[in-house]
Amino acid sequence: MPVDVAAAPPHRRARRWPWWVVGVLLVLAAASGVAARPWASAGPLPFPSPSVSAGSTTAAPTVLPTVRAPRFDATSATALLLEREELEEALPGDDPLSAWPVLPWAWGIPEGSRVEPERCAVARTVVSAAPEVYDVRGWDGLSVRVRQEVVVVADEGAAADAFRTLVATVDSCPEYRQVNQGVDGASWTGEPATEAQGRFPSLWQEIEHTAEGTTVPGYRGHLLVGNAIVTWNAEVLGGAGREELVDRLGEGAALDTLVQRRASEAAAALQ
């Protein structure tokens, strides 16, 4: 799997819990004998559920329109990945972007490599087992690089479970490294992730990647939509610091919003 990179600012960012996480926690806390777990849900998080309307003495259930969770496959999953024009318009820098060369990118850790601590491997692979579909798209500029990947699993329930595991791994692995043959060091240090408040569950963080004596700052984010998880990395090259990170890529929240918009459009196309 190709090495991706990101950034760490000089301050620590406080966690902001979005409304759908708070709602889950409240429901679980009210359930007798059930331990509260962030991101726990009986199904996909972003879709509405039936409610009860209070009328006279007898309350009748109000049936909400059914929102079908998008189910992606090898063809439709590519719609979750940003296009060059979207990125060039969104990024504050003026780098023209060009597509990465077509290479046989594969899911997982390269043969002979390992993640230390081992429990942090999902932070690199997104899911713990080979997904049904895996696709990668990337764009390079003179001083920026954006890499996107999407994994598609069997169904929305499996994707929600995988996303919870991913979030827990990201939270518990602020630092980890990947030992690669022939590479002089590869380590990641990340700020606490910020959970976004968009239509779909997502989080992003500033990360700093160091390899071969060079440190590169950037952002990394993950988003759950239907039976797919989208991961994106945006980085600034050339030994830049946080000031250059924001000048070239903007804020991480804006990039998360861009990925949310792309996911909404891709999901709407499947309704």
List the helices and strands and how they pair.
Blueprint: H1 19-30, E1 51-53, E2 60-62, H2 84-90, E3 98-99, E4 114-116, H3 122-125, E5 133-140, E6 144-152, H4 156-172, E7 175-179, E8 186-190, E9 194-195, E10 202-211, E11 214-225, E12 228-236, H5 242-249, H6 252-268
Antiparallel strand pairs: 1-2, 3-5, 4-7, 5-6, 6-12, 7-8, 8-10, 9-10, 10-11, 11-12
Q: N- to C-terminal separation? A: 33 Å
| Strand segment count | 12
Radius of gyration: 19 Å
Largest sheet: 10 strands, antiparallel
N-to-C order of helices and strands: HEEHEEHEEHEEEEEEHH
**What shape does the CA trace take?**
globular
Counting H and I runs of at least 4 residues, what is the number of helices?
Answer: 6
Low-confidence stretches: 1-67
Mean pLDDT: 78
Word description of this protein:
It is a single chain. By secondary structure, the chain is an alpha+beta fold. It has helices spanning 19-30, 84-90, 122-125, 156-172, 242-249, 252-268, and strands at residues 51-53, 60-62, 98-99, 114-116, 133-140, 144-152, 175-179, 186-190, 194-195, 202-211, 214-225, 228-236. The longest helix has 17 residues, at 156-172. The two termini are 33 Å apart. Residues 1-67 have low confidence and may be disordered.
